[in-house]
Amino acid sequence: MRGLSLLFVALLVMSCGGPKPIVDYDSEANFSTFTTYNIFPDIQTNLSQLDEKRLYSALDDALKEKGITKSRFPDLYINVYTIQYEDVNPNTIGIGFGGGGNVGVGVSGGIPLGKSRVNFLKLTLDIIDESTDNLIWQAVSEQKFNLNTSPEYRLNYFKKLISKMLKSYPPKE
Predict the structure, then answer these.
(1) Where in this chain does the record put each DUF4136 domain (predicted)?
(2) Is the peptide bond before 170 cis (omega within 30 degrees of 0)?
(3) Which residue from 63, 86, 117, 141 could staple onto 68, CB 3.0 to 4.6 Å apart?
């Protein structure tokens, strides 16, 4: 029984981490020289104006913690774009029957309970070297995104998401 309890706790802890962003970068770039940034001109995030403002606030805070400040004449441009989509998850209960002895026989099936709709947000964060106009770092994250939440929840959602995405910026040499 104790083993089952430990397994349950381990699974619970692993499931709380959420999806990890996928990160890629230019190994030739000298990230220590970049100290200023600005949002890419003509950016199209595909978010509402309110969510876009929350996202920029989260970016400002996260980059400030890394010692990178916003400037009219930046070293880096930040480009963000998103895709929102809805996925349908069929809910079922599984039932199985089995036999024993020298011959194993089993039958199983699922009983449909209906379908639930889950909203997802795929966010891509590009960091571009202003002097060369080359992409030098990118993070992509895909997570559940509840559209029916408070403004405070959404701001915290973007703060956590951007923090996770920028965790490995700048890359370790």
Answers:
(1) 23-171
(2) yes
(3) 63
